[in-house]
Description:
Largest sheet: 4 strands, antiparallel
Strand content: 35-45%
Keywords: Signal
Order of helices and strands: HEEEEEEEE
Shape: globular
Distance between the termini: 54 Å
CATH class of the domain at 34-118: Mainly Beta
Helix content: 10-25%
Number of helices: 1
Structural class: alpha+beta
Mean pLDDT: 81
Amino acid sequence: MRGTRTIWASVGVVVMVALGSAAPAHAVAPAKEGTFPLLFTGCAIAEEIELQGSPAHDYMRWVTTGDSAGCYAEIDRNESPIESQHISDSGYHHSDWYYDGPGDTDEVCASNATAGACGPAN
């Protein structure tokens, strides 16, 4: 009987440790500043994040880095589009810069007829 109590006590400690160390599913690890290519076939689009202004804050935009004719690109804020564009030719295209303020989660998403991807949420 004493051995059984010890086993159940050990199981309880393991369960409490495992549950206590779990990160919330909705937590977003912010991206650092930089250029983040969206990796899928048929579009050459990247998410750019940089510090701008004084005091400096994150700003985000999308840019084409190659032929992206037939692709669709957008910036989402809290999962809703704030700017989108259908790219109709192979030239250089970009969105405006958007302030990525506290409490907002922004990301660039792009797609074509067969695939799509999103950059890191910030």
